[in-house]
Model the fold of this input.
Amino acid sequence: MRLKAKELIAKARTTAATLPPAEAKLMNEMADRIDIQYAALCEALKHKEHLTAENLASRDIIERLIGQYSAAGLHAIQNSLNPGQALLYDAIQVLRSTATELPSECIPVEAQAVTTTSRSNICSKCKVGARDGCSSCAYR
Done:
């Protein structure tokens, strides 16, 4: 039986009520960590979607710049003294590279490593760990 994250968390909390105190505490802690990790993952995915949209817009601008400079007769030359040729070279290099991974500073801390964040350190609105502050609701 495969449960969704929220269902798994709810089931773990329900099951914890039937367990002895030590095991219940452990089960609740595991549910808390899964909840935090899930929230962090959702935030990272939203951030990735935003970055993808920005990358597409930037790509369009770069493609237009390359087209205009090429139509003007400029050739892409690395480290050229002609700023237009150097810029054209750089634009082509940027266009050839792809952004496939998020830099670590863009990924929420909770998604990078499992922490022992307690429930009191979690934003009640968006369920993100509040050690460094919540970026979506300014929780401090």
